[in-house]
Amino acid sequence: MVDKSVIPYDLVATKMNYWYVALKNDWVDKAEKMRSEVKQEIAIMEENQDVLIYFSLLEFRHKLMLDYLCPEAAKDIRVHYEELREKTKGGKNLNGMLEYYYYLFTAMYHFRQKELLHALAYYQNAENQLNSFESDEIEKAEFYFKLSEIYFYKIYLKQPTYGQRRVQCQFLMTGNWLDKMNPEKALEHTSKALSDAKELQVDYLIGSSHLNIGICYSQLEEHYKAENHFQMAAKLYKNEKHSFLPKALFNISHVKAKQEKWIEAEDLYFEGREWAQKFEDQEFLAKLKMIYGLYLSFDLDAVRESFEFFSEKGMYADIEEYGVITAELLQGKEMLHDSLEFYRRVVEARRQIQRSETVNES
């Protein structure tokens, strides 16, 4: 006799698919509701190991969403990652869609941890699995969103419900133009992002748009405009206690330091450090230490410690950018030996970037 209280696993799996859609769109309230419903149903679901693994993967993806949008609601993300690794045995014996999700979510985790080389390796594994199962266009866009803004931008543009992704695509194109030292072109994209974000009325995207505009003006050496947009970003991030707040405060402190407004720069340094410690943001703790060592205490050992962190995490673009700033500042102080040290770091970082591009193209 069939137990009518037992729910067929395929019905639960279907609901989990809707949960995943909410996660991809950063619909926090809807995702929380779907997660709660799935947890209740999975407790009385007919046994199916694949669906249980799917649940564990989506649980981790849910934590990643909260870690990004609501960091205070998602504690110990590393612990959750280790739990997932244990449940899935590091992705062993998975195949098809489940293996793809394991590699994708693991890559996203490592990217959030600024472990870029690990992230790249897992993204490559995910790409190898992407065509091993039947996936829709949006799923492919979700993946290539990480790798190629041109590919996924065209896809998201056709989907009216993916407005946030279109804004984030503009952010990536902004970053690409900034990497090419073309802030004027970058401003076109991030200004469009700000317009779209205001239309969507999503505060953290509005804040990120202001942050990117500030970075463009900073590269143009228009410090007043840069500071103005950084301040607007920081205000929005503070309202939401968003994890990007240390990044905004770091940039304001840096602008103040460039203008030799030492007291304001130091106050922002301490505020930024406090928030970075609260969010356990090792990247901006290192960057703020660099600001303090380079401008406020003139402690080159502290600056070197920051650069060692960048190197360990594979943050070669940051080594290139801040290495030039540091070398030029030291050159201006006629500290030529120390200046040469940081120019050498820049050269090595560029070599590593070129090597990575060569590997990715092969």
Question: Care to describe what's here?
Answer:
38% of the residues are buried. Among the domains are: 9-135, Tetratricopeptide repeat domain (Serine Threonine Protein Phosphatase 5, Tetratricopeptide repeat, Alpha Horseshoe), CATH 1.25.40; 299-362, no CATH class. The termini are far apart. Helix 3 (49-69) runs antiparallel to helix 4 (77-88) and helix 17 runs antiparallel to helix 18 (336-361). It is an all-alpha fold and 362 residues long. It contains 18 helices and no strands. The chain has helices at 9-24, 28-42, 49-69, 77-88, 96-112, 116-130, 137-144, 149-157, 163-179, 183-200, 203-219, 223-240, 245-258, 262-278, 282-296, 300-312, 316-332, 336-361. The longest helix has 26 residues, at 336-361.
Overall CATH class of the domain at 9-135? Mainly Alpha
**Residues in β-strands, percent:** under 5%
Output the helix-strand order: HHHHHHHHHHHHHHHHHH
Determine the N-to-C terminus distance: 58 Å
| CATH topology title of the domain at 9-135 | Serine Threonine Protein Phosphatase 5, Tetratricopeptide repeat
Task: Name the shape in a single word.
Answer: elongated
Number of strand segments: 0
Q: How many strands, which pairing sense, and closed or not: the largest β-sheet?
A: none
Mean pLDDT: 85
CATH architectural name of the domain at 9-135: Alpha Horseshoe
Structural class: mainly alpha
In CATH, the homologous superfamily of the domain at 9-135 goes by the name Tetratricopeptide repeat domain
The number of helical elements comes to 18
Question: Mind telling me the C-alpha Rg?
Answer: 22 Å
Q: Show unreliable segments.
A: 358-362
Percentage of helical residues? over 70%
